[in-house]
Specification:
By secondary structure, this protein is an alpha/beta fold. Helices cover about 40% and strands about 25% of the residues. It has a single domain, classed as 3-Layer(aba) Sandwich (Protocatechuate 4,5-dioxygenase, Chain B), CATH 3.40.830.10.
Protein backbone atom coordinates (compact mmCIF):
# COMPACT_ATOMS: atom_id res chain seq x y z
CA UNK A 1 0.00 0.00 0.00
CA UNK A 2 3.00 2.32 0.41
CA UNK A 3 5.51 1.37 -2.28
CA UNK A 4 3.11 -0.02 -4.90
CA UNK A 5 1.63 3.23 -6.25
CA UNK A 6 5.14 4.69 -6.55
CA UNK A 7 6.59 1.61 -8.24
CA UNK A 8 3.71 1.68 -10.72
CA UNK A 9 5.17 4.84 -12.26
CA UNK A 10 8.32 2.92 -13.19
CA UNK A 11 6.34 0.02 -14.61
CA UNK A 12 4.19 2.36 -16.67
CA UNK A 13 7.38 3.77 -18.17
CA UNK A 14 8.66 0.26 -18.78
CA UNK A 15 5.40 -0.78 -20.44
CA UNK A 16 5.81 2.00 -23.01
CA UNK A 17 9.21 0.62 -23.98
CA UNK A 18 8.17 -2.84 -25.17
CA UNK A 19 8.72 -6.33 -23.74
CA UNK A 20 12.13 -7.47 -22.48
CA UNK A 21 13.27 -11.07 -22.81
CA UNK A 22 15.09 -11.03 -19.48
CA UNK A 23 14.93 -8.92 -16.32
CA UNK A 24 17.85 -8.71 -13.92
CA UNK A 25 16.47 -8.04 -10.44
CA UNK A 26 18.74 -6.56 -7.76
CA UNK A 27 17.59 -6.35 -4.14
CA UNK A 28 19.04 -6.07 -0.63
CA UNK A 29 19.20 -9.01 1.76
CA UNK A 30 17.07 -8.25 4.86
CA UNK A 31 17.21 -11.74 6.38
CA UNK A 32 20.92 -12.42 6.70
CA UNK A 33 20.52 -15.82 5.06
CA UNK A 34 22.96 -17.12 2.49
CA UNK A 35 25.95 -15.72 0.66
CA UNK A 36 26.87 -12.06 0.62
CA UNK A 37 26.09 -11.74 -3.09
CA UNK A 38 23.79 -14.50 -4.24
CA UNK A 39 22.23 -15.44 -7.55
CA UNK A 40 19.85 -18.27 -8.39
CA UNK A 41 20.64 -20.07 -11.64
CA UNK A 42 17.84 -22.63 -11.93
CA UNK A 43 14.13 -23.00 -11.32
CA UNK A 44 11.04 -20.84 -11.22
CA UNK A 45 9.65 -18.14 -8.94
CA UNK A 46 5.94 -18.55 -8.29
CA UNK A 47 3.36 -15.87 -7.51
CA UNK A 48 -0.46 -16.02 -7.67
CA UNK A 49 -0.07 -14.82 -11.26
CA UNK A 50 1.99 -17.83 -12.33
CA UNK A 51 5.58 -19.03 -12.65
CA UNK A 52 8.55 -17.03 -13.92
CA UNK A 53 11.58 -18.96 -15.11
CA UNK A 54 15.16 -18.11 -14.18
CA UNK A 55 17.39 -17.53 -17.19
CA UNK A 56 19.96 -20.24 -16.57
CA UNK A 57 22.22 -19.21 -19.44
CA UNK A 58 22.55 -15.56 -18.47
CA UNK A 59 22.77 -16.31 -14.75
CA UNK A 60 25.73 -18.56 -15.39
CA UNK A 61 27.32 -15.97 -17.66
CA UNK A 62 27.17 -13.45 -14.82
CA UNK A 63 28.83 -16.01 -12.57
CA UNK A 64 31.69 -16.32 -15.05
CA UNK A 65 32.06 -12.54 -15.40
CA UNK A 66 32.14 -11.84 -11.65
CA UNK A 67 34.48 -13.22 -9.01
CA UNK A 68 32.23 -12.43 -6.07
CA UNK A 69 28.71 -13.70 -6.85
CA UNK A 70 27.79 -17.11 -5.45
CA UNK A 71 24.99 -19.46 -6.39
CA UNK A 72 22.93 -19.62 -3.21
CA UNK A 73 19.17 -20.19 -3.17
CA UNK A 74 19.00 -19.73 0.61
CA UNK A 75 19.73 -15.99 0.35
CA UNK A 76 16.41 -15.60 -1.46
CA UNK A 77 14.32 -17.45 1.14
CA UNK A 78 11.79 -15.12 2.79
CA UNK A 79 13.41 -12.10 1.10
CA UNK A 80 10.78 -9.69 -0.20
CA UNK A 81 12.78 -7.02 -2.02
CA UNK A 82 12.99 -8.87 -5.33
CA UNK A 83 9.79 -10.90 -5.27
CA UNK A 84 7.54 -7.84 -4.85
CA UNK A 85 8.55 -6.71 -8.34
CA UNK A 86 7.28 -9.86 -10.04
CA UNK A 87 3.51 -9.16 -9.97
CA UNK A 88 4.11 -5.85 -11.77
CA UNK A 89 6.17 -7.60 -14.43
CA UNK A 90 3.67 -10.44 -14.76
CA UNK A 91 0.80 -7.97 -15.10
CA UNK A 92 2.64 -6.44 -18.06
CA UNK A 93 4.12 -9.52 -19.69
CA UNK A 94 2.46 -12.63 -18.30
CA UNK A 95 5.18 -15.28 -17.93
CA UNK A 96 6.82 -14.51 -21.28
CA UNK A 97 10.07 -13.30 -19.80
CA UNK A 98 12.86 -14.72 -17.66
CA UNK A 99 14.62 -13.35 -14.59
CA UNK A 100 18.06 -13.32 -13.01
CA UNK A 101 17.67 -12.48 -9.28
CA UNK A 102 20.73 -11.20 -7.39
CA UNK A 103 20.48 -10.59 -3.64
CA UNK A 104 22.93 -8.17 -1.98
CA UNK A 105 23.99 -8.63 1.62
CA UNK A 106 27.44 -7.18 0.89
CA UNK A 107 26.82 -3.64 -0.37
CA UNK A 108 30.21 -1.93 -0.45
CA UNK A 109 30.87 0.25 -3.49
CA UNK A 110 33.55 -1.96 -5.06
CA UNK A 111 31.33 -5.04 -4.92
CA UNK A 112 28.31 -3.18 -6.29
CA UNK A 113 30.35 -1.85 -9.19
CA UNK A 114 31.72 -5.32 -9.97
CA UNK A 115 28.20 -6.75 -10.12
CA UNK A 116 27.07 -3.88 -12.34
CA UNK A 117 30.02 -4.35 -14.69
CA UNK A 118 29.40 -8.10 -14.95
CA UNK A 119 25.71 -7.68 -15.70
CA UNK A 120 26.43 -4.96 -18.27
CA UNK A 121 28.77 -7.32 -20.13
CA UNK A 122 26.16 -10.06 -20.15
CA UNK A 123 23.32 -7.77 -21.25
CA UNK A 124 25.22 -5.96 -24.02
CA UNK A 125 23.28 -6.34 -27.26
CA UNK A 126 20.43 -8.23 -25.61
CA UNK A 127 16.79 -7.30 -25.04
CA UNK A 128 16.85 -6.94 -21.26
CA UNK A 129 16.37 -4.53 -18.39
CA UNK A 130 17.71 -4.15 -14.87
CA UNK A 131 15.52 -3.32 -11.88
CA UNK A 132 16.94 -2.31 -8.50
CA UNK A 133 14.60 -2.62 -5.52
CA UNK A 134 15.04 -0.49 -2.39
CA UNK A 135 13.18 1.64 0.09
CA UNK A 136 14.52 5.12 0.83
CA UNK A 137 14.87 6.71 4.29
CA UNK A 138 13.36 4.64 7.12
CA UNK A 139 11.36 5.91 10.11
CA UNK A 140 12.24 9.58 10.31
CA UNK A 141 10.00 12.66 10.34
CA UNK A 142 8.70 13.65 6.91
CA UNK A 143 10.86 16.74 6.57
CA UNK A 144 14.05 14.88 7.46
CA UNK A 145 13.25 11.95 5.17
CA UNK A 146 12.48 14.22 2.24
CA UNK A 147 15.66 16.22 2.74
CA UNK A 148 17.89 13.13 2.83
CA UNK A 149 16.12 11.35 0.01
CA UNK A 150 16.35 14.43 -2.19
CA UNK A 151 20.14 14.33 -1.87
CA UNK A 152 20.24 10.61 -2.68
CA UNK A 153 18.01 11.05 -5.71
CA UNK A 154 20.17 13.91 -6.96
CA UNK A 155 23.10 11.47 -7.07
CA UNK A 156 20.92 8.89 -8.80
CA UNK A 157 19.82 11.39 -11.44
CA UNK A 158 23.49 12.29 -11.99
CA UNK A 159 24.23 8.57 -12.42
CA UNK A 160 27.06 8.96 -9.91
CA UNK A 161 27.41 5.92 -7.66
CA UNK A 162 30.37 7.39 -5.77
CA UNK A 163 28.35 10.49 -4.92
CA UNK A 164 25.50 8.20 -3.87
CA UNK A 165 27.72 6.51 -1.30
CA UNK A 166 29.16 9.81 -0.13
CA UNK A 167 25.68 11.22 0.55
CA UNK A 168 24.52 8.06 2.32
CA UNK A 169 27.59 7.95 4.56
CA UNK A 170 27.84 11.68 5.29
CA UNK A 171 24.17 12.09 6.13
CA UNK A 172 23.51 8.62 7.57
CA UNK A 173 20.71 7.85 5.16
CA UNK A 174 18.93 4.62 6.14
CA UNK A 175 18.32 3.40 2.59
CA UNK A 176 18.33 -0.40 2.52
CA UNK A 177 19.33 -1.16 -1.08
CA UNK A 178 22.12 1.26 -1.92
CA UNK A 179 24.26 -1.59 -3.31
CA UNK A 180 21.63 -2.65 -5.85
CA UNK A 181 21.11 0.98 -6.87
CA UNK A 182 24.86 1.51 -7.34
CA UNK A 183 25.13 -1.69 -9.38
CA UNK A 184 22.28 -0.50 -11.59
CA UNK A 185 23.89 2.92 -12.09
CA UNK A 186 27.19 1.27 -13.03
CA UNK A 187 25.52 -1.05 -15.53
CA UNK A 188 23.34 1.71 -16.97
CA UNK A 189 26.32 3.93 -17.66
CA UNK A 190 28.27 1.09 -19.33
CA UNK A 191 25.21 0.26 -21.45
CA UNK A 192 25.18 3.91 -22.58
CA UNK A 193 22.18 5.22 -20.72
CA UNK A 194 21.87 8.93 -21.46
CA UNK A 195 19.73 10.04 -18.53
CA UNK A 196 18.14 9.07 -15.25
CA UNK A 197 14.71 10.54 -14.60
CA UNK A 198 12.79 10.75 -11.34
CA UNK A 199 9.22 9.62 -11.98
CA UNK A 200 7.67 9.79 -8.50
CA UNK A 201 8.58 10.32 -4.85
CA UNK A 202 6.26 9.78 -1.89
CA UNK A 203 6.46 8.69 1.72
CA UNK A 204 4.30 6.43 3.84
CA UNK A 205 3.05 9.62 5.49
CA UNK A 206 1.45 10.65 2.23
CA UNK A 207 -0.64 7.47 2.45
CA UNK A 208 -1.36 7.30 6.18
CA UNK A 209 -1.40 10.98 7.06
CA UNK A 210 1.08 10.41 9.90
CA UNK A 211 4.23 12.39 9.14
CA UNK A 212 6.01 11.80 12.43
CA UNK A 213 7.83 8.66 11.29
CA UNK A 214 7.83 7.79 7.59
CA UNK A 215 9.53 5.62 4.99
CA UNK A 216 10.44 7.12 1.62
CA UNK A 217 9.77 5.59 -1.80
CA UNK A 218 10.90 6.65 -5.26
CA UNK A 219 10.60 5.49 -8.85
CA UNK A 220 13.25 6.39 -11.39
CA UNK A 221 14.16 5.19 -14.87
CA UNK A 222 17.41 5.06 -16.80
CA UNK A 223 17.12 5.32 -20.56
CA UNK A 224 19.28 5.50 -23.67
CA UNK A 225 17.04 8.10 -25.29
Amino acid sequence: MFSGPVAAHAYYELALDGKPNVVFLFGPNHTGYGSALAVMTDGFWRTPLGDVEIDNTLANQVMRESRIIDVDDSAHLSEHSIEVQLPFLQYLYGSEFKIVPICFSMQDLASAKEVGEAVAKVLAGKNGVIIASSDMTHYEPQESAQRKDKMVLKAVKAMDEEKLYSVIEDHRVSICGYGPIAALITAARILKAKEAKLLCYKTSGDVMGDYSSVVGYAAACFSKQ
